[in-house]
Amino acid sequence: MARVHFTPNLRRHLEAPSVEVPGATVSRVLDQVFAANPALRSYVLDDQGRLRTHVVVYVDGGAVSDRIGLGDPVAERSEIHVMQALSGG
Amino acid sequence: MVLHLGTRKGYLAFHRVRRGQWRIARAAFVGDPVSQLLPDPRDGRLYAALDLGHFGVKLRVSEDQGASFEDLPAPALPAAPVPDARAPSVSLLWCLEAAGPAPGSLWCGTIPGALFRSEDAGRSWELNRGLWEQPSRSEWFGGGYPEPGIHSVLVSPDGRRVVCGISCGGVWVSRDGGETFEVATRGMFAEYMPPDRREDPAIQDPHRLAWCEADRNRIWCQHHNGFFRSDDGAGRWASVDVPPSSFGFAVAAHPSDPDTAWSAPLVKDECRVPVDRRMVVARTRDGGDSWESLDRGLPEDSFAVVYRHGLAVDASGEVLALATTTGAVWISEDQGDSWDLVTHQLPPVYAARWS
């Protein structure tokens, strides 16, 4: 199971606790997260399901490369951080 | 009487103490950009559109005059069947209006040029296909933003007539409650475009539309190229010369006198400051034939810009709010003859509305 952590800045708007979920790609992991916490989805993804322009996701310390389809691989014990990109101020 | 402000760093409600003295009675979303507001006269609800930057656009509603808000789903465009880097996504909720007599019916105009409708007080939204599927939409482009946006939606009391202003995509009129739209820019022109595109409806940049509630054939348009007036409900537009400048973003229409309107002039598109740095409000009382420069109470050395939704007249037509991108607010209680500074300590103000 991968562990997913969210920037604490999200807590100003809604609950976004760290969770453990299965999934072989970022897309599958986040789908699991949003199934349990639907309101969180629109904070991380845009209308098209892409990462928002100023949100960045790290898998085991590396920023994901597929921001459109979220196909970056996730390992059994990956640590995933969903952060705000400083490009957004 | 309440002045609602959407600012770069939150929602504020000003209550009148006495003439020239207003106090902040409510503040919400402190730190977060509030792009638009709708104090809905039909049911007392207060809608607030947020632009959270990193985390996207959000919509909130209050049923207790802004004391508390609850989340609503923000209007969103349908997802493409497969991941698509270029498919559109809503990036700003720019316009919120009551859509007719039924409480809870709403229009929301957005960037990237999508119009949405709700019938249930914002709990669900549907994309307006009549406007979104116009073939000319591919010709629209952004005005101050990367993508086009709907900033003005005028709605008749029965909800049948709908007039949309799009930067940059022209003026669109529906006479069937939004089922179908026709472009309505005859007489508008854009001198900053190549000669053969200057009258092209799809590239017109109406900065803001306002109509007289008592005579909805009289519509005013502050346009990127200048100022325009229609006497026949957007069937035809006539250019109006507004001293000291016909450039600006905001326009307000008197609710019962079709010949009275106000604008907040700036030098020109390439120099967006008040003419001679003297802040004035321009007012006509004769349908745009002549204008007064109203400056009593306004500063002489100013760089203030009043953005599209920063000039608001109340339902009586007597009281105006003038709110700037440099965080100052003036209120006039005599149709603009004189202005009282309320504050100059705010973040940039995006939207001002009365209730």
Q: What's the order of the H and E elements of chain B?
A: EEEEEEEEEEEHEEEEEEEEEEEEEEEEE
Low-confidence stretches of chain A: none
Report the structural category of chain A: alpha+beta
- The strands making up the biggest β-sheet of chain A line up spatially as 2-1-5-3-4
Strand content of chain A: 15-25%
Shape designation of chain B = globular
Oligomer: heterodimer
Low-confidence stretches of chain B: none
- How many structural domains does the protein architecture of chain A include? 1
> Largest beta sheet of chain B: what is the strand line-up?
3-2-1-28
Mean pLDDT of chain A: 96
Instruction: Summarize the main sheet of chain B.
Output: 4 strands, antiparallel
Largest interface: A-B, 24 and 22 residues
Number of DSSP-assigned strands of chain B: 28
**Structural shape of chain A:** globular
- CATH topology heading of chain A: Ubiquitin-like (UB roll)
- Largest sheet report of chain A: 5 strands, mixed
Average the pLDDT over all residues of chain B and give the rounded result.
97
Characterise this structure.
- The complex is a heterodimer of chains A (about 90) and B (about 350).
- Chain A is α+β, with helices and mostly antiparallel strands and about 90 residues long.
- Chain A is about 15% helix and about 25% strand.
- Chain A contains 2 helices and 5 strands.
- A 5-stranded mixed beta sheet of chain A has the order 2-1-5-3-4, with helices on one face.
- Chain A is globular and about 30 Å long.
- The mean pLDDT of chain A is about 95.
- By secondary structure, chain B is mostly beta strands.
- Chain B is about 0% helix and about 40% strand.
- Chain B has 1 helix and 28 strands.
- In chain B, the strands form 7 sheets. A 4-stranded antiparallel beta sheet of chain B has the order 3-2-1-28, with no helix packed on it.
- The longest helix of chain B is centred in the middle third of the chain and has 4 residues.
- The interface between A and B is medium-sized, with 24 and 22 residues.
